[in-house]
């Protein structure tokens, strides 16, 4: 009996940790508990089974599973003879990470890059058109900092490309499940 308790405790510890970190995906801890439960059950489950296991309302369960589907972290599966929808975890955490974070990185990087390039042009115009030495120097200082930022965003785009092309796995070890 003692070992059963250790197994349950180990499972619960990981589920709680996953739940607390789901904010990285922009979702609530309760959705993390749904994900963790599906992960450890290692079998497709219905909303009713999840509701019973987690003691959550069916509405909350449905909303949580829908969010996980949208994040591409779970999938709906079919089983012969089963009339209710079944859901299971997509087990490729590496691809889940790539799908979620590269999209966010790319969007944020592009927004910052666009703003930096536009500001660079404005600063170059200000430097060329001003007679005020102090304004010109401040613009040059800003231009230097923005040039550095643009170099960083271009580098970050290369990192994102490594993930999206999966070439990152040529540089790191990972385990295929």
TrEMBL record:
MF GO annotations: DNA binding
Sorted UniProt keywords: DNA-binding, Transcription, Transcription regulation
InterPro entries: HTH-GbsR_regulator, MJ1563, WH-like_DNA-bd_sf, WH_DNA-bd_sf
PANTHER family in UniProt: HTH-TYPE TRANSCRIPTIONAL REGULATOR MJ1563-RELATED
Family: Belongs to the GbsR family.
Name this protein carries in UniProt: HTH-type transcriptional regulator
Organism: Rossellomorea marisflavi
């Amino acid at each position: 009996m003692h070992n059963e308790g250790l197994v349950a405790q180990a499972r619960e510890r990981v589920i709680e940790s996953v739940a607390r970190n789901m904010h990285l995906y922009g979702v609530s801890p309760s959705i993390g508990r749904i994900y963790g439960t599906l992960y450890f059950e290692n079998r497709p489950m219905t909303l009713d089974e999840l509701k019973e296991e987690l003691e959550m309302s069916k509405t909350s369960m449905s909303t949580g599973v829908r969010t996980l589907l949208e994040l591409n972290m779970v999938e709906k599966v079919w089983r012969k003879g089963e009339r209710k929808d079944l859901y299971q975890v997509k087990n490729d955490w590496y691809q889940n990470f790539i799908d979620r974070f590269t999209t966010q990185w790319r969007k944020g990087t592009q927004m910052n890059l666009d703003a930096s390039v536009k500001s660079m042009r404005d600063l170059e115009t200000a430097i060329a058109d001003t007679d005020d030495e102090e304004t010109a120097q401040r613009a040059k200082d800003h231009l230097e900092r923005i040039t550095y930022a643009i170099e960083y965003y271009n580098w970050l785009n290369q990192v994102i490309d490594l993930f999206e092309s999966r070439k990152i796995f040529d540089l790191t070890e990972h385990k295929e499940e």
